[in-house]
């Protein structure tokens, strides 16, 4: 679960408590300790309790500020929404302000989670590429045991070779022209390119393209 959803669920459970049980920082800290392991989420801090506690204290601070602004305009329990019937204009205004604060906080948290996830995916991709070895350009000098996935072929060609079960450059060199041409979306142009790039003349009449002198 990402931080945005975890925070939303934790705040929702906090708001579901009786009002007298969610008034003080101490109550927020106790609730954070109680619920910190219920929702699994990624966090910059190794201390999940501190992360949840910070969420609750921030929410409590916002609620207190809004309630102070609403003094003299009628007291609210903290459970109302601006769309609830029976509210005065002043109460609706106060609730909209509170909901806007919550929306901003959730947006900031979502943006942070998005960037963290993008960075995590980038690091995972780099680790996979490092483990797989360097990406090589196709050349006649490539050893036969070079994995096809480590060679910079066009995506269409790589996918076609992979689907046909060819895992190494040696597999590609050994297969006949007829077998290659029978593969889906693999024509004489692709065949000619492979034969030229990997340094193996065609055996079935398809010749590598001859480069024009410049």
From TrEMBL:
Signal peptide: none
Protein name, as recorded: RNA polymerase, alpha chain C terminal domain
Gene Ontology BP terms: DNA-templated transcription
Residues covered by region (Disordered): 69-119
A Pfam family per the record: RNA_pol_A_CTD
MF term (GO), any: DNA binding
Domain RNA polymerase alpha subunit C-terminal: 145-198
Feature: compositional bias, Basic and acidic residues: 69-83, 90-119
């Amino acid at each position: 679960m990402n931080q945005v959803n975890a925070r939303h669920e934790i705040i929702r459970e906090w708001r579901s408590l009786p009002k007298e049980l969610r008034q003080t920082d101490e109550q927020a800290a106790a609730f954070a300790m109680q619920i910190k392991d219920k929702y699994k989420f990624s966090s910059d801090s190794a201390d999940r309790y501190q992360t949840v506690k910070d969420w609750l204290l921030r929410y409590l601070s916002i609620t207190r500020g809004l309630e102070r602004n609403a003094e003299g305009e009628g007291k609210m329990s903290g459970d109302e929404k601006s769309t609830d019937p029976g509210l005065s204009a002043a109460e609706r205004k106060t609730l909209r302000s509170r909901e806007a604060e919550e929306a901003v906080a959730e947006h900031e948290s979502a943006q942070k989670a998005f960037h963290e996830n993008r960075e995590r995916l980038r690091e995972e991709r780099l680790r996979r590429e490092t483990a797989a070895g360097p990406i090589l350009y196709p050349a006649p000098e490539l050893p036969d045991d070079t994995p096809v996935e480590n060679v910079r072929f066009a995506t269409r060609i790589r996918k076609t070779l992979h689907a046909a079960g060819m895992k190494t450059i040696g597999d590609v060199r050994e297969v006949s022209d007829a077998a290659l041409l029978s593969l889906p979306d693999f024509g004489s142009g692709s065949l000619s390119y492979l034969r030229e790039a990997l340094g193996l003349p065609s055996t079935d009449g398809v010749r590598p393209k001859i480069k024009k002198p410049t």
